[in-house]
Amino acid sequence: LRKKTPEAQQLAEQIIAGNKTALSRGITFIESQQAKHQYIAAQLIEYCLPKANKSIRIGITGVPGVGKSTFIEAFGNLLITQDKKVAVLAVDPTSSVTKGSILGDKTRMETLVKEQDAFIRPSASGETLGGVARKTRESIILCEAAGFDHILIETVGVGQSETAVHSMTDFFLLLKLAGAGDELQGIKRGIIEMADAIIINKADGDNQKKAAQAKSEFQRALHLYPTKNTGWTPQVALCSALENTGIDNVYELILSYLDLTKENGYFEQKRRDQNKFWLLQTIEEHLKRNFYQHPDIKKELPLQLQLIEEGKTTPFVAATFLLKLKDN
Amino acid sequence: LRKKTPEAQQLAEQIIAGNKTALSRGITFIESQQAKHQYIAAQLIEYCLPKANKSIRIGITGVPGVGKSTFIEAFGNLLITQDKKVAVLAVDPTSSVTKGSILGDKTRMETLVKEQDAFIRPSASGETLGGVARKTRESIILCEAAGFDHILIETVGVGQSETAVHSMTDFFLLLKLAGAGDELQGIKRGIIEMADAIIINKADGDNQKKAAQAKSEFQRALHLYPTKNTGWTPQVALCSALENTGIDNVYELILSYLDLTKENGYFEQKRRDQNKFWLLQTIEEHLKRNFYQHPDIKKELPLQLQLIEEGKTTPFVAATFLLKLKDN
C-alpha cells in the first residue's frame, strides 16, 4: 500500500520476534502526533497485521478504588503460570490529568511488571476518547504480532470509554465492590448491559457477607435484561485480588465463554462486526484529525468559539466559515 | 455568506410571518438529501437565525407506552390556553422502522394538531442519529423564527438519542410509569442524570398508590446524584395526561427552573455551551456526509465491508484504501 522504509521494516521484524523494547517503541510511534512517526506507525501495522489476531482480548472496567490494578496483577500472574503471554493496555482519556488511571502508576503492578511474559503500557494521554481508542486498537495489533495471546484492556470506568473498550474486546468484565451505593452507580451508566461477567472484588474478611449479598442482587438484576445474542448468560462471581482467591474461577468463566462462542460462531461474528465498526471509526477519526490539525483551523477555531461565547456568531455561521476556510 | 436565491428569500419571509405551510416546506428542505435543497435550507437558516432563539426548548423522553403523545397533547393544550405557540419536533432515528414513534401517528394528538398555534412535525427518518439531530436542531431555528415560543422535542427513549435531545434543550423531562420494572430501565440508561424533572404519568385510578410509591423511590434515588451546576434540584411529580391532572404543576416546575437559571446566568451559559458543541457537531457531520456521499465511496464502501465480512481485509487496510480513493 505504501513505500516501506528500512527503519519500519527492521522494527516490525523485532516486534514480530517478540522484542518488548521494540514493541514499546512501536507503540510510541502509534501514539505520536508527528506526521513522520505516523507514517512509520502505519507501516508497522501493515507488517504486523498478518501476524496478529490470535489472541483473546479481555476488557476490564470498574470505578476507581474497586481494585483494578490488584485484580489485573493477580489475573495476569495466573495467566503466566498457565504459559500465557499477557499484554495490559488501557483506554483512559482522562489519564493526562491522572484521574485514577491505574496504569499511570506501574509500581502498583510490581510483580507482573517484572515478568518476561508480561507487557504493561499506560494509556495514551492528552487526547480525545476517539484518539485514545484508535491508538489502543492499533497497539493491540502490535502486541498480538509480538506473541501476546491475552490482551487485557483496562478502562477507568467513566463516561463513554467502556463502550470503546467493549467494541475492541471479546469478553467484557465489570469489577464491582459490595455496598457503598456502588451497585446503583454501575447500573446508571448502562455498563451492566455490556458485561459478560460481573466480578465482585474484595470479597474477603469482614466483606464476605456483603459480597455474597451483592452477588445475589446482581444475579437478580441480570435476570431483568434480555438474553444476549451470544447465547451466554452473564455470570456473577466473587474474588479477592488481594488474597488471590476466586481468580482461577474468573479464568474458567472466560474459558467457558470462549468454548460456547467459538462453537456457535459468535466469537468470529463479533470480531467481524467490530472490524466493520472500526473501519468507519478509523475513517471518521482520520477526517476529523485531518480537519482540526489544519494550520488555518488550529488558528481560527478558538476565535470562532470565542465569538460564540460572546454571542457574536452562531454555530452554523461559524461552521460554514471554518469549512470554507479548509476547502480553500 | 452565500448568494441568496429569490425562492429562499420568499420562503424565509413567509416563515418569519408565521406561515405554517411555509414552515413545513422549509423543514422539508432541511430534511432533503438533494444538494439543491440543502443549498436552499442553508439560506433559510441564515435568514431565520436573527429571528430565532427566543423560545423555551423542552426535551421529553420516556419508553414506548409511557404516554408521551397523550402528555404532549395535554401539555401543549395547556400552553395554548396561556397564549403560547407550541411546536412539537422529534429526534427518533428508529422512526423509519416505526419502533414506537409517537409523531409518526399524528392522529394520536388529535386536538393539538387542530390548533392554529400548534405545529407538529414527525422526526426525519432513514438517517443516522447525527443526521436526525442536526436536522432537528436546524428545524428549531425555523420554528423559532416562525414565532413558536415553546419547542417540545420528543425522543423515543432508546440509546443515545436522549443525549442529542439533552444537548439542544433548556429543560429535560423524563416521563415514567409506576411499577413494571420500568424504574430500573430508566436508571440503567443514565437518563436520570440528565433529567431536570421526572414526571410519573398515568397516576390515576388504581395506579395512584403505586405512583406515589414510585415518586418516593425516585426522590430517594435522586439524592444519590451530585448537585447539578444549575443550582436546580431535579423534581419528581405525578400527573395523569389522560385525566389532565398535574399538567399545570409540570408547567410551574419548568417556570421555577427558568426563573432560577435565568437569574443565576446558567440558562444563557448552557445555550452558549450547546452552541460550541453544535459548532463541532455541524463540522463533523459535514465532514462525514461529504465523505460518505462521494460517488466513489458510495460504490466502494459496501465492497470493502463485504471483504471484512469475508475476512479478506482489515479495517486499517480498507480505511486507507477508501481515504486515498476520496483524495484522488
In short:
Chain A is α/β, with parallel strands linked by helices and 328 residues long.
What's the arrangement of secondary structure elements?
Two copies of one chain form a homodimer.
Chain A: H1 6-16, H2 20-31, H3 35-48, E1 56-61, H4 68-81, E2 86-91, E3 118-120, H5 129-145, E4 150-155, H6 161-166, E5 171-176, H7 182-188, E6 197-200, H8 208-223, E7 235-238, H9 247-263, H10 266-292, H11 295-309, H12 315-327
Description:
The structure is a homodimer of 328-residue chains. Chain A is α/β, with parallel strands linked by helices and 328 residues long. The first copy, chain A, has three domains: 1-51, Single alpha-helices involved in coiled-coils or other helix-helix interfaces (Up-down Bundle); 52-264, 3-Layer(aba) Sandwich (Rossmann fold), CATH 3.40.50.300; 280-327, no CATH class. Chain A has twelve helices and seven strands. Chain A has a seven-stranded parallel beta sheet, sandwiched between helices. In chain A, helix 2 (20-31) runs antiparallel to helix 5 and helix 4 (68-81) packs across helix 9 (247-263). Chain A is globular. Chains A and B meet through helix 3, helix 7, helix 10, helix 11 and helix 12 of A and helix 3, helix 7, helix 10, helix 11 and helix 12 of B.
